[in-house]
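Notes from hallway chat w/ T.B., transcribed later so I don't forget. T.B. wanted the structure written out for a chain they're using in a teaching module, and asked if we could keep both sequence and structure tokens in one place. Agreed to drop them here.
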Amino acid sequence: MIIHQSIKAIFCWSGGKDSAYALHLVQQKQEYEIVFLLTTLNAQYKRISMHGVREELLDAQACALNIPLVKVWVKEGTNNEYEQQMEKAMRQAQAQGVTHVIFGDIFLEDLRRYREENLKKVGMHAVFPLWKKNTTELIHDFIQLQFKTITCCTNDQYLGEEWVGKEINETFVRDLPSTVDPCGENGEYHSFCYAGPIFKTALSIQNGEKIYRPLEIKMADDCSLPATETKGFWFCELMKK
């Protein structure tokens, strides 16, 4: 009998819907063994980079997914710091036999090339389960699979305060402006996934206050943002119930 051994991989986990859907597809195919989730957090605020979600909610996600979590901390928010910290994490993963890194990106060519080039430096390979899929079909499939997700951040170039802290459902998708990609792939919005087929248990969360932050430094791991017209971001403070 021939036993096929799964390929060991890291999953770059943002906590949002694209990560959740990509992880679901990977688990369905069973080609890769997810050794751990990898998430970048801001060391000063103890929050997921760009998304602004608290570390304790990220921990709760990983627990509900029943997958180990490794955190990459950044302080300065520069490309150089991010790349150094990621390379360190990749080297440590290689020692565990990891050869591939999985991302939830959909169609941003520059971002894919950036990831692939950085991984090539350490002899690792990038995997993109959602690549070039139709984003309208993706978001409808995601909703039909009964994932539960809420917007945690919106880019004010595209979406205002009223769009942050909203459940992503069919009404949300229907009401999106025509200039906004249904999956927010151009950086229009970010999300936090708290329930769905990949979770052992659903997380119980609630909305807190909404906070506006003027644009500062754009993180290397989210270089999709067209900062020229973005003045800032709305964040919704998500909390455990």
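Follow-up for T.B.: Residues 147-240 form one domain. Might be a good example for the class.
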